[in-house]
Automatic annotation (TrEMBL):
PANTHER family: HTH-TYPE TRANSCRIPTIONAL ACTIVATOR RHAS-RELATED (PTHR46796), TRANSCRIPTIONAL REGULATORY PROTEIN (PTHR46796:SF14). It is found in: Cytoplasm. It comes from the Bacteria. GO terms for molecular function: DNA-binding transcription factor activity; sequence-specific DNA binding. This is AraC family transcriptional regulator. Regulatory protein of the TOL plasmid xyl operons. XylS activates the xylXYZLTEGFJQKIH operon required for the degradation of toluene, m-xylene and p-xylene. Pfam families: HTH_18. Residues 30-128 form the HTH araC/xylS-type domain. GO terms for biological process: positive regulation of metabolic process.
Length: 133
């Protein structure tokens, strides 16, 4: 996938946002989201993200959720599913390849998370997408 696509947030524009104070600054939010998207296929620790923002793990987690409406892990999971959906739609990669490229530890975990998120397993979702083309 082209690098320019990796640095664009894949979450919908209407992602939940809290209006209370105490969130990340816009610069820190941009920085951490870019870091996540650049390393989406890797194992990401909240401690690493917090360190990139020069914040403690707990302060970062609260501020991130305040800014985005999602915990860091939920936001990462959302981005991984969004990237997986793009790969399912636009490539012929196996679900195993897609799961690993999107940062899931294995295909079983990917299928579980995808099904919980989308209400349908990734194979069936691929079949639906291909049928609707």
């Amino acid at each position: 996938m082209a690098h320019s696509q990796q640095t664009v947030a894949l979450a919908p524009a209407s992602e939940p946002r809290k209006t209370s104070t105490g969130g990340l600054s816009p610069q820190r939010e941009r920085l951490v989201k870019q870091l996540i998207l650049e390393r989406l296929g890797d194992s990401l620790e909240v401690t690493e993200l917090a360190s990139a923002c020069s914040l403690s793990r707990s302060h970062f987690s609260r501020a991130f959720k305040c800014s985005t409406g999602l915990s860091p892990q939920d936001w990462i999971r959302t981005q991984r599913i969004a990237r997986a959906k793009l790969l399912i739609q636009h490539t012929n990669h196996s679900l195993t390849q897609i799961s690993l490229e999107c940062g899931f530890c294995d295909q079983a975990h990917f299928c579980h998370i995808f099904t919980r998120s989308e209400g349908i397993n990734p194979f069936a979702w691929r079949c639906q997408v291909m049928k609707n083309r």
